[in-house]
Amino acid sequence: MAREPEPPSLARVWNFLRPWPILLAGLGLTILGLLLTSTPFLAARVLLRGAGLLLVGAAINRRLRTPGRNWGNGSSRRGCWP
Questions:
Q1: Could you count the other beta carbons within 10 Å of the beta carbon of residue 49?
Q2: Can you give the pLDDT at residue 3?
Q3: Nearest to 19 by CA among 76, 71, 68, 80
Q4: 9-48: buried (b, 16+ CB within 10 Å) or exposed (e) per residue?
Q5: What torsion do the CA atoms of 44, 45, 47, 51 make, to the nearest 10 degrees?
Q6: Comparing C-alpha atoms, which of 18, 55, 14, 12 is closest to residue 33?
Q7: Helix segments in 1-82, DSSP class H
Q8: What confidence score (pLDDT) does residue 14 get?
Q9: Model confidence over 27-73: pLDDT tens digits?
Q10: How many Cβ atoms from other residues are within 10 Å of residue 78's Cβ?
């Protein structure tokens, strides 16, 4: 009999959902595009900046879609609204 496929582990799913490597790659591409401002490579600058901004936007979108820590309603912390 064939073995049934196992579902992916939680750690593997979490690594896929992590936005931080995508954010760092996007920031790196954007900075690289900004460093090329004094060069005549206009197409490379535009592509690097555009790809960097798209990656940063995708990382922010992914971060906002993942559930964060459950801090409750916040009323038990001092200095917060009742």
A1: 18
A2: 74
A3: 68
A4: eeeeeeeeeebeebbebbeebbeebeebeeeeeeeebeeb
A5: 130
A6: 55
A7: 10-17, 20-35, 42-65
A8: 60
A9: 999 999 999 999 999 999 999 999 999 999 999 998 888 766 655 55
A10: 4
DSSP 70: -
Query: Which SS3 state, helix, strand or coil, does residue 9 take?
Result: coil
Q: Say whether 24 sits in a helix, a strand or coil.
A: helix
- Do the Cβ atoms of 36 and 48 come closer than 8 Å? yes
Contacts of 56 (CB under 8 A, 6+ apart): 23, 26, 27, 30
Amino acid residing at 46: V
Closest CA to 59 of 31, 33, 36, 28: 28
